[in-house]
């Protein structure tokens, strides 16, 4: 064999080795992909122009990448999302509370560390400040609520103030601006983000007392063998929350991480 022929053969062998390694790497990456389902809840997790967004999504994606996984997020109505996890169609659910622990933990493994916390508070116009001192401080007021949302029995049945439901939080913020309601009951991050999107963030403030809320998690499907992943994710999440990358994610959404920190009970 000539020197030229040997050189060509060596080049082909090298190219074949590179191609084989690339295919093996692609196969490994695909094998480590996690299909996670969620319901839209901006700015925690939502879809914009066909792309997944939200700080809970981006934090989950970053932490899973540190563990060697890619996150393929799918959206579905809430009840269907739970069915998909229970029937092993997906690897987990994003943006879920523990709820009935016996029921959900039967098929989902929850990390010890929560991604964030939902804190439902009372928004008001800065020009009409309000201080919450218990439900009786709402006497005579009209509070904007969200149709179809379940509130605590005390709040839902109190006869001394009016609850006025609408379909979206944006509608409640507009009604506040027009003076049609006195207060609006909205998740802190959702209210702040909605006000930013409407271009009126400077008009509102909120009473920090949490009326309702809870911790938000990414939970993994037990039947797919993800119990250990839940533990590993929890440890990696704790470490990630101490980084500048974590704070940068929230800054991009105009949200203070402290405002969505998991509440203590």
Notes on the protein architecture:
The chain contains 9 helices and 11 strands. The chain has 265 residues and is α/β, with parallel strands linked by helices. It has 2 domains: 28-117 and 214-260, Periplasmic binding protein-like II (D-Maltodextrin-Binding Protein, domain 2, 3-Layer(aba) Sandwich), CATH 3.40.190.10; 118-213, Periplasmic binding protein-like II (D-Maltodextrin-Binding Protein, domain 2, 3-Layer(aba) Sandwich), CATH 3.40.190.10. The relative contact order is 0.16. Mean pLDDT is 88; it is low at 14-31.
Shape category: globular
Our count of domains comes out at: 2
Average pLDDT? 88
CATH superfamily of the largest domain: Periplasmic binding protein-like II
Largest sheet: 9 strands, mixed
Structure keywords:
265 residues, alpha/beta, D-Maltodextrin-Binding Protein, domain 2, 2 domains, 9-stranded mixed sheet, two-stranded antiparallel ribbon, 9 helices
Protein topology:
Elements: H1 3-31, E1 33-38, E2 46-48, E3 51-53, H2 55-66, E4 70-75, H3 78-86, E5 92-96, H4 101-104, E6 108-109, E7 116-125, E8 142-146, H5 153-157, E9 162-166, H6 169-178, E10 183-187, H7 188-198, E11 204-221, H8 227-240, H9 244-252
Helix pairs in contact: 2-8
């Amino acid at each position: 064999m000539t020197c030229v022929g040997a050189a060509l053969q060596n080049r082909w062998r090298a190219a074949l080795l590179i191609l084989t390694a690339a295919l093996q790497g692609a196969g490994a990456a695909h094998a480590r992909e996690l299909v996670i389902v969620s319901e839209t809840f901006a700015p925690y997790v939502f879809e914009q122009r066909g792309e997944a967004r939200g700080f809970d999504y981006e934090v989950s994606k970053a932490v899973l990448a540190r563990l060697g996984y890619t996150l393929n997020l799918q959206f579905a109505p809430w009840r269907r999302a739970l069915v998909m996890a229970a029937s092993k169609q997906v690897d987990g659910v994003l943006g879920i509370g523990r709820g009935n622990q016996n029921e959900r933990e039967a098929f989902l493994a929850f990390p010890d560390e929560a991604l964030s916390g939902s804190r439902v508070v009372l928004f008001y116009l800065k020009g009409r400040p309000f201080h919450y001192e218990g439900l009786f401080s709402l006497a005579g007021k009209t509070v904007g609520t969200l149709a179809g949302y379940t509130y605590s029995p005390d709040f839902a049945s109190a006869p001394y103030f009016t609850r006025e439901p609408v379909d979206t939080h944006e509608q409640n913020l507009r009604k506040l601006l027009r003076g049609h309601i006195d207060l609006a009951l909205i998740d802190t991050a959702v209210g702040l983000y909605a006000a930013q999107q409407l271009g009126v963030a400077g008009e509102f403030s909120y009473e920090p007392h949490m009326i309702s809320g809870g911790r938000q998690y990414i939970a993994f499907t037990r039947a797919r063998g993800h119990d250990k992943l839940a533990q590993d994710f929890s440890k990696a999440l704790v470490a990630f929350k101490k980084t500048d990358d974590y704070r940068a994610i929230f800054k991009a959404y105009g949200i203070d991480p402290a405002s969505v920190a998991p509440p203590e009970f």
